[in-house]
Design goal:
It is a single chain. With 320 residues, this protein is an all-alpha fold. The chain contains 15 helices and no strands.
Length: 320
């Protein structure tokens, strides 16, 4: 089977899925009919951000406030300028495929990973709805895999670049911090003081610059306290997030190889999202959002789980 699948099959699959996802971005003529508001929120948030308007006090057509962190707005900006924020999902898929090709040399594993991701109903649904939720976790998973492939002997060889990347990724979604903690905390403690300082300073500068761009247009400090992305965004309550963040810190010390990062991230991200969905169902009942959209939150762990599975397949094949 492995000999029958060559690189041509892999690239063909990527090409077909890329065309398919691009078509899905245009399949919905009236996105308002789906009762999903993230696409519109991303649209006006990007527009307000570009024009220096405050983002977090404007309600979308469903009456919800924007909760986008500036890191996610930065990643989505090129596709907003292209006129379709749905293209972000196509780019995220291509990034995922690239990092899989970079890390895994077996064409069977490459084909399998890209195929499993490509036929995911959750991601297809997100693409049709022009929702960017899963893409945040794809960017994090792809970054971890890419950074490991390039700097596996020392993750802190490029501390300034690493600090910038972490600053952007940590300001995509709050839960995105958890896989990054699992990936980098133990190596961070082991690296030299000079590289620690460079990474931390660059990270803080990047975060501050991005936050200033979204918070500076606010009327006053009280307004920021009332309307800010930290209050508005969160895939679980603060205590649950603190618990899982602490769990990520604890687990990070048990990471021995890169596959452990993806395995642990899969479980923790899934449990965070599961607690969020259960919390919402308990509060609002089974009619939460009047559809099954809330269950797509559980697919946040999708890129981590697929990559973890690929590592396990490679390990088994090496034994044979």
């Amino acid at each position: 089977m492995q000999k029958k699948i060559n690189i041509i099959f892999v690239y063909s699959l990527i090409g077909v899925l890329t065309v398919g996802y691009t078509a899905l971005c245009h399949i919905l003529k009236d996105p308002y009919q789906l009762n999903i508001d993230r696409w519109q929120t991303l649209n006006f948030s990007s527009e307000y951000w570009i024009h220096g308007k405050y983002i977090y006090d404007t309600r979308n057509f469903m009456g919800n406030l924007s909760s986008y962190f500036p890191g996610q707005l930065l990643l989505a900006l090129p596709f907003y300028l292209l006129g379709n924020v749905g293209y972000l999902q196509v780019a995220a898929f291509l990034l995922f495929s690239y990092t899989v090709l970079l890390e895994f040399k077996s064409n069977l594993i490459r084909f399998m990973a890209i195929a499993m991701f490509g036929i995911s109903l959750s991601y297809i649904y997100e693409t049709v709805c022009k929702s960017d939720f899963i893409s945040s976790f794809i960017f994090v998973a792809a970054f971890i895999l890419f950074w490991h492939s390039k700097f596996k002997n020392n993750y802190f060889q490029r501390p300034i670049l690493l600090g910038i990347c972490l600053g952007i990724l940590c300001l995509t979604r709050s839960v995105a911090v958890i896989p990054l903690i699992i990936f980098l905390l133990k190596p961070f403690l082991a690296t030299s003081a000079d590289r620690k300082i460079k990474t931390v300073i660059t990270f803080i500068i990047t975060v501050c610059i991005l936050l200033i761009t979204v918070l500076l247009p606010a009327k006053n400090l009280e307004y920021i306290v009332q309307y800010n992305p930290l209050n508005l965004q969160g895939q679980s309550n603060k205590f649950v997030m603190l618990f899982f963040a602490a769990a990520a810190v604890f687990i990070s010390f048990y990471v021995k190889k890169i596959s452990d990062v993806f395995t642990f991230s899969t479980f923790i991200v899934f449990l965070v999202m599961l607690s969020f969905v259960l919390e919402k169902y308990l509060l609002f009942g089974y009619g939460f959002q009047h559809n099954l959209f809330s269950t797509t939150y559980l697919a946040a762990c999708l890129p981590f789980s697929i990559i973890a599975y690929c590592f396990s397949v490679r390990k088994e094949s090496e034994k044979v």
